[in-house]
Design brief:
Elements: H1 16-21, E1 24-25, H2 72-75, H3 78-81, H4 93-98, H5 102-111, E2 116-119, H6 126-131, E3 137-142, H7 145-158, E4 164-168, H8 171-179, E5 190-193, H9 216-224, H10 238-246, E6 252-257, H11 262-274, E7 287-293, E8 296-303
Parallel strand pairs: 2-3, 2-5, 3-4, 5-6
Antiparallel strand pairs: 1-4, 6-8, 7-8
Length: 315
């Protein structure tokens, strides 16, 4: 029989029945003492290089001629995704078009400083790596064993794999199991939501039927006249995903397409009052941060709860 996965860390968050049937932890960490949540800057983390090799899973491209045509525009930006790409960072096809550029991930991580952060759609690890430099403990989920292995491989290159708990599980099941757990000494302080947007053609709509390979200038023009609806978020409606997440923590960073309908984002703020989160009837603010790379707007990060500037008292 193979070695049984070490689930001691995960057991701090979920009931035993979920551990036995639904999740696999890819990390082997000793159980730590509980720490109180905090928003202050954590101590400087000294990178700890560990050996974890996932090179057999996907190719590591080094020259353009090795790259499939549909990925070449992403390969040209590889150093923006992972500054240490040349040291062996790995991405699968979905990872190439969904990973958060490193500078943006670092900026978000700085805003999300806390004890324990949950990254439930970690992909190939771009955000989880950044969170490991500003948070004490990172829980990284993904439904793909390949992407989870790539995330751990990349985290090892950055020397932060020891601060990340990699868990093979879908977020909906994890969240429901977490919410049904007995009271624990460790809570999740912040949730970073970066769910699938619908693939590289998310900007296009069913009405215009524009493919992901369409002319980039036309895509930008189209986007200026279209809006992205939260109903296209996967695996469930984006508003329902937010509602579920608020039961875990009020402190949410929601990473969304740059053309997301701001009225729908505003409506998420109404859920707080509707669900009794603000019994004092004082409205809570939502902060929408534009994420730019040079002259290109890449995405929006919407901050809720104590992550909003000037609203840290509710953290």
């Amino acid at each position: 029989m193979g070695k049984k996965p070490n689930l001691t860390g995960l057991s701090r968050f979920l009931p035993q029945d979920f551990l036995n049937s639904n999740a696999t932890s890819l990390s082997e960490k000793p159980q730590n003492q509980s720490r109180s949540a905090k928003k202050c800057k954590t101590e400087t983390h000294v990178p700890v290089r560990t050996k974890y090799d996932a090179t057999a899973l996907v190719p590591h491209y080094t020259t353009t001629h090795e790259v499939p045509e549909n990925l070449q525009k992403y390969f040209s930006q590889r150093k923006r995704y992972f500054s240490l790409y040349d040291q062996g960072c790995l991405l699968d096809e979905e990872g190439w078009y969904s990973v958060t550029p490193e500078n943006i991930a670092v900026q978000i991580a700085d805003r999300c400083r806390c004890d324990t952060i949950l990254d439930p759609f970690c992909g190939v690890g771009g955000n989880a790596i950044a969170f490991a430099k500003t948070c004490e403990h990172v829980i990284a989920l993904d439904i793909s064993p390949t992407r989870l292995a790539l995330a751990r491989h990349n985290a090892a290159i950055y020397g932060v794999a020891d601060r990340i708990e990699f868990i093979l599980a879908d977020y909906i099941s994890f969240a429901n199991a977490y919410l049904s757990r007995p009271h624990s000494t460790r809570n999740i302080d912040v949730v970073f939501l970066s769910p699938p947007w619908g693939g590289p053609g998310y900007i296009s709509t069913s009405e215009n039927n524009v493919s992901a390979d369409s002319n980039a200038d036309f895509q930008d023009e189209l986007e200026a006249h279209s809006q992205y609806s939260l109903s296209r978020i996967q695996p469930i409606h984006g508003a329902d995903l937010f509602r579920l997440t608020k039961r875990i923590s009020d402190n949410i960073a929601y990473f969304l397409p740059r053309n997301t309908d701001l009225n729908e984002i505003s409506a998420l703020g109404l859920l707080e009052k509707d669900e009794g989160v603000t019994p004092d009837d004082k409205p809570r603010m939502i902060e929408v941060e534009e994420e730019w790379m040079g002259s290109k707007l890449k995405a929006l990060t919407c901050y809720f709860g104590g992550l909003v500037a000037g609203q840290e008292h509710v953290f």
